[in-house]
Write a structure and sequence with these properties.
10 helices; alpha/beta; about 35% helix; about 15% strand; single chain; binds zinc ion
Length: about 280
């Protein structure tokens, strides 16, 4: 085995169930395994997603399921969504997400977002489950809500963190972990790259957010398109590129970064990993 393939990688946030990845899941997971992807947190974002996420977790031991209502899909929620969410959380060890606040997306109603977010955060706190949080243009409000609590004692994930660098430290004090995607390697994302340097080493995680957040073309290891329209989508096996990008930004060897990310991942998600090799 080469040294490269011996590195263990952890995807803190993706959407492996997304229909843009088509019915190629087994192939995608195989490529991920060849790349050294040891565990991935697969986030269902609405009730329609949750059965598919559960099936993947039952099929592939490296999949950690995560169930939650994302602010973009709140209009789809049924009267029973809370009961349904509790039901899915009881099927196997799982995280809560993707949940969050979004004032950026056009036409999105902010009205119900805080109530739904806080209910899910409370559930995560009660059960001490990791929560994966999406936030766009609502950082001040998110901080206030998190500070008021309750929060999961083990911490929570700010996925694809794009908030101000000045907020990293106060959020870390509340228990935040910060995961970053390969999308931030795009030339225009200079501010996001700078923020990388402010993330405490013991709070950094890496994500693909596949099939979203495609890295720049020169960093794509596995090309993939949406079969319905031929558009490029992000292959979850591109995770290694994100590690390499993060290591460059932080000026450290990728192996050093990888072992620290593994420790961080296990601290936040470890007890949910079914494979003993993940939570050693
Ligand atoms: Zn996501």
């Amino acid at each position: 085995m080469t040294r490269r393939s011996a590195m263990r990688l952890f995807d803190a946030h993706n959407h492996l169930h997304d229909e843009r990845l088509g019915d190629r899941t087994a192939d995608l997971v195989k490529v991920c395994a060849q790349e050294g992807v040891t565990a991935m947190v697969v986030n269902g974002s609405c009730e329609e997603d949750w059965p598919a996420v559960l099936r993947l977790a039952q099929q592939f031991p490296q999949v950690i399921p995560s169930f939650g209502y994302h602010p973009w899909y709140l209009h789809e929620r049924t009267a029973d969504w809370q009961q349904t969410l509790r039901h899915f959380l009881e099927q196997m060890p799982a995280a809560i997400g993707e949940i969050g606040l979004d004032r950026w997306k056009e036409g999105l109603d902010y009205g119900p977002q805080e109530e739904v977010f806080l209910w899910q955060l409370q559930l995560a706190a009660e059960r001490n489950l990791p929560a994966s949080i999406h936030c766009l243009q609502a950082w001040g409000r998110l901080y206030d809500l998190l500070r008021a609590g309750p929060r999961p004692a083990r911490g929570f994930l700010l996925h694809s963190y794009g908030g101000p660098k000045e907020m990293v430290e106060p959020l870390a004090k509340l228990g935040a972990y910060f995961s970053r995607p390969g999308y931030f390697a795009h030339e225009r994302k200079a501010r996001h790259r700078e923020t990388f340097r402010y993330i405490p080493p013991d709070r950094l995680l890496i994500e693909t957010d596949a099939p979203d957040q495609l890295p720049p073309e020169n960093r794509i290891r596995h090309f993939l398109t949406d079969p319905s329209n031929g558009r490029a989508v992000n292959h979850p096996g591109n995770l290694r590129s994100v590690y390499e990008f993060a290591a460059e930004i932080r000026s450290e060897p990728v192996e050093v970064l990888a072992s620290r990310v593994e420790e961080n991942f296990n601290r936040l998600f470890g007890s949910l990993c079914p494979s003993p090799s993940v939570s050693e």
